[in-house]
Amino acid sequence: MMSSLDVTWATRAGGGGRTERRYLDFVIDGVALCSRFNADFIPPLGWFTVVEQLATIERLRCRMPPNLPHHRTALCICPECGAIGCGAISLSVEGGAGVVEWKDFGIQNNHEDVIHRQGFEGVGPYTFDGAQYHALFARLRSLVTSGG
Q1: In what helix (H) or strand (E) does residue 11 lie, and over which residues does it extend?
Q2: Are 89 and 37 in contact (CB under 8 A)?
Q3: Are 63 and 97 within 8 A, CB to CB?
Q4: Which of 18, 45, 120, 126 could disulfide-pair with 105, CB 3.0 to 4.6 Å?
């Protein structure tokens, strides 16, 4: 069964030592992705450096190699500094032009060889239509490069 994928603007509340962040969250089958996690990580889209936003887009399109061990890609990062060393929600992205699958969600960082999967048992896998998936990421790429 194919899942739908889109993005929407969201805000991470600030206060109490937390920085408020406006970011683009993924929406899968009508549900905001970050609402599925019991962790304080957000996608880098809409707020982090342009270079890292574009790299994330290309990794999720399988046009750049994953940035974490075990062939995994960081999907959501530390909303304070963006460092993977603070931890990141990562996943395995597989597919190509026809179908793309997101699966095996977990938390990992770039200084341990461990993937913490506890709490992600009900998240994914998600299978997306390749044409719609790549059209969405092309739109995101244009949005990031235009500064909008």
Answers
A1: strand 5-12
A2: yes
A3: no
A4: 120
CA distances, 112 to each of 16, 25, 107, 115 (Å): 29, 27, 11, 8
What is the phi/psi pair of residue 91, to 5°? Answer: -155, 170
99-108 vs 31-32, strand pairing mode: unpaired
Phi, psi (deg, nearest 5) at residue 105? -70, 150
pLDDT digits (tens, 9 = 90+) for 41-53: 999 999 999 999 9
Spatial distance between the Cα atoms of 48 and 56, rounded to a whole number of angstroms? 11
User: Amino acid letter at 44?
Assistant: P
Q: Express each pLDDT in 82-91 by its tens digit.
A: 999 999 999 9
